[in-house]
Write a structure and sequence with these properties.
With 338 residues, this protein is α/β, with parallel strands linked by helices. Helices cover 36% and strands 17% of the residues. The protein has a single domain, classed as Alpha/Beta hydrolase fold, catalytic domain (Rossmann fold), CATH 3.40.50. The longest helix is centred in the middle third of the chain and has 15 residues. The chain starts with a strand and ends in a 7-residue tail after the last helix.
């Protein structure tokens, strides 16, 4: 177990669109590794607020770097701890150890390493599933929980994601280009091509193209940009045929669910996120206009204000309690088995 101190000087006020001062590497004042069971977990610490927030990255298989634009603008509101999940980025770990149960155990390892009795958790996408499961298993160790663009709460929603209307021509072009980019020898080029192919046809509206999302995800150092598909498969197997709607009712702390929505249309992503909020007793939902999955890129200032209000112990002004779960459940019904 080792820790290496850093000195970081962050100048000026963060702009809503610029990259200056927004990277985790520049803003961090400490970094290091925690070693357990043959795996090494790489972490960074930034911020100076009185409360400690631990962030769980999503993907599955993404290094923490893409979360910089979401977290750095909030660095004065809390002390933030982020880490690359096991087997992702600069963290190591055999494929056989990757999965939801192990990620929950690794999260508690980070809590123990930093000697935290209780912590606020922020989870993104599959990281939201990890954070929620942790809050269920360890209710006395969590004070607040934010779920940002959370992973589908049930297998039915996962089916619904795959059935979304998409730009089939764009999706086909991405699929055709993907094998060549994998053999190109350019790690960053392959990473951006992979995530562009992943984001553009399905998740993002025209005001947040897949290219921006891909560049954000692939902004880390080359050694962190490994092919994410291997870890994705291992993690998804661990959550196969899941349905957590009954489980999350045991979460007893305040929970904020944030998702991006497309214009004024009530989209599947909003319905899906509302199902998380509906089934958690003390939860509220915020729907931000703009791109789903990475809402801080499409609407950075409203995202910052929503998170800031929650971290300070209240609810965002536009937070609401979902009251129409039946429509959501109908949308989440999986297709019949052939």
């Amino acid at each position: 177990m080792r820790t290496r101190g850093l000195v970081a000087v962050v100048l000026g006020i963060l702009s809503a669109c610029g990259d200056s001062g927004r990277s985790l590497a520049d803003a961090a004042h400490d970094e290091g590794t925690v070693t357990v069971d043959g795996a090494s977990l790489f972490f960074r610490v930034l911020g100076s607020g009185p409360d400690t927030v631990v962030v769980v990255a999503g993907g599955p298989g993404l290094p923490m770097d893409y979360l910089g634009p979401a977290v750095v603008p909030l660095r004065r509101d809390a002390t933030w701890i982020l880490y690359d999940p096991r087997g992702a980025g600069r963290s190591t770990g055999a494929d056989s150890t990757v999965g939801l149960p192990r990620d929950v155990a690794d999260l508690d390892l980070m809590r123990t390493h930093f000697r935290l009795e209780r912590m606020t958790l922020v989870g993104h996408n599959t990281g939201a599933a990890v954070a929620a499961r942790y809050a269920i298993d360890h209710p006395d160790r969590v004070s607040r929980l934010a779920l940002v663009s959370p992973y589908p709460i049930s297998q039915g929603f996962l089916w619904a994601w795959h059935l979304l209307d998409r730009d089939t021509a764009l999706f086909r072009r991405g699929a055709e280009a993907y094998p060549a980019s994998r053999q190109s020898g350019s790690v960053q080029g392959f990473c951006e091509q992979y995530w562009f192919w992943y984001f553009q046809p399905v998740y993002q509206p025209a005001d947040l193209p897949g290219k921006l999302a891909a560049e954000s995800v692939c902004g880390g150092p080359v050694e962190a940009l490994v092919d994410p598909s291997r870890r994705q498969l291992a993690w998804l197997r661990s959550a196969h045929a899941h349905d957590w709607r009954a489980d999350v009712a045991a979460i007893a702390v305040p929970v904020l669910v944030i998702e991006g929505v497309k214009g004024t249309e009530r989209h599947l992503f909003q319905s899906h996120a509302e199902t998380w909020a509906f089934n958690i007793p003390d939860a509220r939902m915020v729907a931000l206009k703009g791109g789903s999955l990475l809402p801080w890129l499409a609407n950075p200032e409203p995202f910052r204000l929503a998170m800031q209000a929650f971290l300070r112990g209240g609810w965002p002004a536009d937070a609401y309690r979902p009251t129409d779960p039946e429509q959501v459940r109908t949308a989440a019904t999986p297709p019949p088995t052939p």
